[in-house]
């Protein structure tokens, strides 16, 4: 499919000993044959074999703040060498990711990772995708047959979808803790679906009830796998709770009392 664009120049002259070499330009994608016809005697003509034209580059656009596991729109545009849209481009194309921070995103994946031919209209595609890890990445789109023809988004930040604070319950025979008994308080950062984000490495602000010995803040590490349990106890009777806030988002979670 060659589209509707024209090759330029359309008229040539200056043959030397029956031969002419010149630069020509076709501004779209597709496969064409180039036919040369004598202006005086149009029956005298010759055609090239198939010539394939591919995109010179892509642009990739999305909102720069997203939630882990929440679907968002990515716009991909195919361009010619002059920076104009290539309306006949039909793909297929693929997505890949380039980690910015943290530099390693084991298990990180964009889904779906492919843009099929039906999704491109006039050289443009709008695709709903999800990403499953915390941090900052750039999204690359590239032609499946010619991977060097590609484009990269600006850095996109992915934040947790929720913050959960849970208390390990005491013995099944009772609904209270004894003074001095160890209390486990687990804080988890989760995605849009409530699944723990295994690579979360942000900072947590901790605001406990007076008398509940906990740190003021905690920095998650890769070894936490998105969930950390604090252990504490109390030496005075009362009702206690803890509020946790994510420093890189407006998320907040509170333990049951």
Summarize the helices and strands and which ones pair or pack.
Layout: E1 30-32, E2 35-37, E3 45-47, E4 51-53, E5 57-61, E6 65-67, E7 72-79, E8 93-101, E9 110-111, E10 114-115, E11 124-131, E12 135-143, E13 150-152, E14 156-159, E15 162-167, E16 183-190, E17 203-208, E18 217-219, E19 227-232, E20 242-246, E21 252-254
Parallel strand pairs: 6-14
Antiparallel strand pairs: 1-4, 2-3, 5-7, 7-11, 8-10, 8-12, 9-11, 12-13, 12-14, 15-16, 16-19, 17-18, 17-20, 20-21
Question: Can you tell me about this structure?
Answer:
The chain has 257 residues and is mainly beta. 0% of the residues lie in helices and 40% in strands. Strands 6, 8, 10, 12, 13 and 14 form a six-stranded mixed β-sheet that branches. It is rod-shaped.
Give the key terms.
257 residues; rod-shaped
Order of helices and strands: EEEEEEEEEEEEEEEEEEEEE
> Please, what is the average pLDDT?
89
| Total helical elements | 0
By DSSP, the count of extended strands is 21
- The structure class reads mainly beta
Radius of gyration computed on alpha carbons: 30 Å
Amino-to-carboxy terminus distance: 67 Å
The shape, in one word, is rod-shaped
- Report low-confidence residues grouped into runs of 5 or more: none
Q: What amount of the residues lies in strands? A: 35-45%
Main sheet overview: 6 strands, mixed
């Amino acid at each position: 499919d060659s589209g509707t664009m024209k090759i330029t120049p359309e008229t040539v002259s200056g043959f030397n000993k029956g031969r002419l070499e010149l630069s020509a330009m076709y501004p779209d994608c597709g496969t064409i044959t180039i036919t040369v016809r004598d202006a005086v005697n149009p029956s005298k003509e010759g055609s090239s074999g198939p010539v394939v034209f591919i995109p010179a580059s892509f642009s990739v656009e999305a909102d720069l703040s997203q939630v882990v596991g929440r679907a968002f729109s990515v716009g991909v545009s195919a361009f010619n060498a002059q920076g104009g849209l290539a309306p006949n481009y039909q793909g297929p194309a693929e997505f890949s990711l380039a980690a910015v921070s943290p530099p390693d995103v084991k298990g990180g994946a964009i889904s779906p990772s492919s843009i099929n031919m039906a999704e491109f209209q006039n050289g443009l595609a709008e695709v709903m995708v999800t990403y499953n890890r915390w941090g900052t990445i750039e999204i690359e789109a590239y032609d499946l047959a010619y991977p060097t023809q590609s484009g990269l988004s600006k850095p996109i930040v992915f934040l947790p979808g929720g913050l959960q604070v849970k208390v390990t319950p005491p013995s099944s025979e009772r609904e209270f803790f004894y003074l001095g008994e160890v209390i486990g308080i687990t804080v988890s950062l989760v995605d849009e679906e409530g699944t723990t984000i295994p690579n979360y490495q942000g900072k947590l602000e901790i605001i406990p009830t007076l008398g509940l010995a906990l740190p003021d803040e905690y920095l998650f590490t890769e070894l936490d796998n998105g969930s950390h349990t604090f252990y504490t106890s109390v030496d005075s009777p009362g009702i206690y709770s803890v509020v946790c806030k994510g420093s890189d988002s407006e998320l907040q979670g509170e333990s049951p009392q």
